[in-house]
Give the backbone structure.
Amino acid sequence: MLDFKLYPQSAGEDLGMPESLKKCSSLVFFAGRHTRRLSVFLLSLLLLLLAGLAACTEPGEHDVRDANGNSLQELPQARVDGDVSLESAIAQRRSIRAYTGAAMPVQHLAQLFWAMQGITSEGQGLRTTPSAGATYPLETLAVVGNVEELDAGVYRYHPQQHAISKIADGDQRAAVSAAALNQNWMDQAAVIFIVTAVPERTTAQYGERGEAFVKLEAGHAAQNLHLQAQALGYGSTPVGAFDDNDLMKAAGLSGEENPLYLLPVGEPEQGI
């Protein structure tokens, strides 16, 4: 038969409460006093577990990185139709060495990168410039000094993603122009493009003759840049006089690539 006696809640009284209920009552009082502390502990443990899971999670599709772990920044899509004809750009192109220092829109930076090495055939990965055996030995970089929406620094172009990754911080234009035998007029260009090459990509297939193919390809890319710059209203000029080691140090280039060209681009001074 069930016992329906009511027992007092005071822990100090003993009015016939069975021993088993006394133990349960003590446990309830203990749990009540420590419930808040236990909740805080469990919440802290949960937060630690979540933090651990986040740290172990692989970067998502919006956190794509290059081979060296640098984050990729997607560039605006390049245009394939413009307001200036090819013939006009060819006729008007001149080597310009005086710039206003005005900022360049990031859209124009994207267009110039695309003109040099952009992908024009998604399925095959073909680019804007011809390459012997489609070996694509060139790397293109930009020493950014004054580009809207971009911090100053050195950026590498990734054609497959039409994106850039920063490989060096800060405005390196003065250091690059110093490496170019102190051609300080380049300091006022909004951007100084660098064309480098990894010759082994081509010589592995063509042997010594591949060295010539690499240099020819650099010329193709540079001419594309000059014509695109002209079409966008910029001045540019090719620069081949520089100390390789000083340039590599200034721009943070890797040891496997050889610098071939400097290509300053900026708004031309009036009357130039």
Remarks:
- The helical segments are 19-56, 86-92, 106-117, 173-179, 200-206, 209-231, 244-251.
- The two ends are 110 Å apart (CA to CA).
